[in-house]
Amino acid sequence: VLINGVRETRRGKKLEHQDRIDIPELPEDAGSFLIIHQGEQ
């Protein structure tokens, strides 16, 4: 899932224009997601 420049495959996502999220394709074995909050600006 790359937001600032490429494609997004998540639903119900609300992001600011300043938000940048880069998530490489993870194998299903990972079973965990990385969530980053930049906080309020």
UniProtKB/TrEMBL annotation:
**Which keywords does the record carry?**
RNA-binding
Give this protein's Gene Ontology molecular function annotations.
RNA binding
Q: Does the keyword RNA-binding apply?
A: yes
Q: Does the keyword RNA-binding apply?
A: yes
Superkingdom? Bacteria
According to UniProt, the name of this protein is: RNA-binding protein
Question: Source species, please?
Answer: Paludifilum halophilum
